Amino acid sequence: MFHFFLFPFSNELGAKTHMGDFQLHKLLGAGNFGRVYLAEQKQTRKKVAIKMIPREKVCDALAVRGVMREKEILELAKKKNHPFLIGLVTYFETQHDMCLAMDYASGGDLSSVMTRTLSIETSV
């Protein structure tokens, strides 16, 4: 099987990142493009959310552009310290997945938060 690499081997700090740098804890959610896990960066003990995108899901130019755009938005959110967007901590690839390690925000995804908020507002 041919394996392509979408991301460079090193992150922006020049250090090679890999799955062994993290301890996966639990599945936070799954969608059409992958799974998101709560993880802990072993060296810093920082909690992160790791989005694992199976390589087989990124099978055409449009999908590649989508993943790269998501990575760029997360990088920009981190660089600008955006108050409402999650930032990218690092990125790496495994044999089977492309991985985006992002800042972890407890409380669930935006859809879950909005559903809870709307149900509280309508019950009042």
From TrEMBL:
EC identifiers of the protein: 2.7.11.1
Domain (Protein kinase): residue spans on this chain: 22-124
GO function terms (MF aspect): ATP binding; protein serine/threonine kinase activity
Entries under InterPro entries matching the protein: Kinase-like_dom_sf, Prot_kinase_dom, Protein_kinase_ATP_BS, Ser_Thr_kinase_AGC
Presence of keyword Nuclease: no
Natural source organism: Xenopus tropicalis (Western clawed frog)
Protein's name according to its UniProt entry: non-specific serine/threonine protein kinase
Domain of life from the UniProt record: Eukaryota
Coiled coil: none
